[in-house]
């Protein structure tokens, strides 16, 4: 899975970096359409701004992870797992900012913007952070044997969050669609690699669920 995600993410990165015309054309068509809707639908746009700026903001997602790490230490004495979780989220942020700086893709520019954002566009930091956090927490719930009701609820919340944050970033005109796809791919790659490291024969497989 990690190899497949790396291949897809790497290919998309190259296409964005070389400004492949078909991709830019598709990005532009989708973005222009959604921007027209965003300008027209004031109520929905306002709701999306609240979701993307507060509920699915990267800082909020990192705080959720910090709370999960604290719970692991407090209730499970799982110091290694808590450290692994925190380090993975931090590394995901470093990867995200590094790729942004390397590609330096401009964000969409509109004569009548409905929102604003800083830094380069590719990949979407909101989409990547949501993918990393939700992916890690889902894997931890699975590993610690979450009940069926909790698992189904967590999966539903994760899917809505990861898909929803991507939709809001395109709707608000601060990202191209391929930025969001890139965020999803790189986020999933970080999760896959982190789980692989955790489950390394000399590490995670030899540890009990407490550590």
Task: Write up what this structure looks like.
The structure is a single chain. This protein is mainly α and 211 residues long. The protein has one domain (1-19, 42-197): Vanadium-containing Chloroperoxidase, domain 1 (Up-down Bundle), CATH 1.20.144. 75% of the residues lie in helices and 0% in strands. α4 (58-76) runs parallel beside α6 (125-143) and α6 (125-143) runs antiparallel to α7. It is globular. The model has no long low-confidence stretch (mean pLDDT 94).
Rg is 18 Å
CATH class: Mainly Alpha
Q: What is the chain-wise order of helices and strands?
A: HHHHHHHH
Q: Provide a count of the helices.
A: 8
Number of spatially distinct domains? 1
What is the CA-CA span between the terminal residues?
25 Å
Q: Given the helix and strand composition, which structural class is it?
A: mainly alpha
| Overall morphology | globular
CATH topology: Vanadium-containing Chloroperoxidase, domain 1
Quickly give the CATH architecture. Answer: Up-down Bundle
Our estimate of the beta-strand percent is under 5%
Helix proportion: over 70%
- Which regions have little confidence, pLDDT < 50, spanning 5+ residues? none
- Tell how many strands the DSSP assignment holds: 0
Keywords: Membrane, Transmembrane, Transmembrane helix
Protein name: Phosphatidic acid phosphatase type 2/haloperoxidase domain-containing protein
Pfam families: PAP2
Transmembrane segments: 54-74, 81-99, 119-141, 153-174, 180-200
């Amino acid at each position: 899975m990690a190899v497949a995600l790396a291949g897809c993410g790497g290919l998309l990165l190259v296409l964005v970096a070389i400004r492949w015309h078909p991709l830019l054309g598709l990005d532009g068509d989708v973005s222009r359409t959604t921007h027209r809707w965003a300008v027209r639908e004031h109520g929905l746009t306002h709701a999306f701004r609240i979701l993307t700026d507060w509920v699915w903001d990267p800082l909020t997602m990192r705080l959720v992870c910090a709370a999960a790490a604290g719970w692991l230490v407090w209730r499970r004495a799982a110091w290694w797992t808590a450290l692994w979780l925190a380090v993975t989220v931090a590394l995901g942020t470093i990867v995200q900012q590094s790729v942004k700086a390397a590609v330096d893709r401009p964000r969409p520019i509109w004569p009548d913007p409905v929102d604003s954002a800083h830094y380069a566009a590719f990949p979407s930091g909101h989409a990547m952070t949501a993918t990393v956090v939700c992916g890690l927490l889902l894997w931890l719930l699975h590993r610690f044997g979450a009940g069926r009701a909790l698992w189904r609820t967590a999966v539903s919340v994760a899917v809505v969050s990861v898909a929803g944050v991507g939709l809001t970033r395109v709707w608000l005109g601060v990202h191209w669609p391929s930025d969001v796809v890139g965020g999803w791919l790189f986020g999933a790659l970080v999760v896959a690699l982190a789980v692989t490291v955790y489950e390394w024969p000399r590490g995670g497989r030899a540890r009990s669920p407490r550590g």
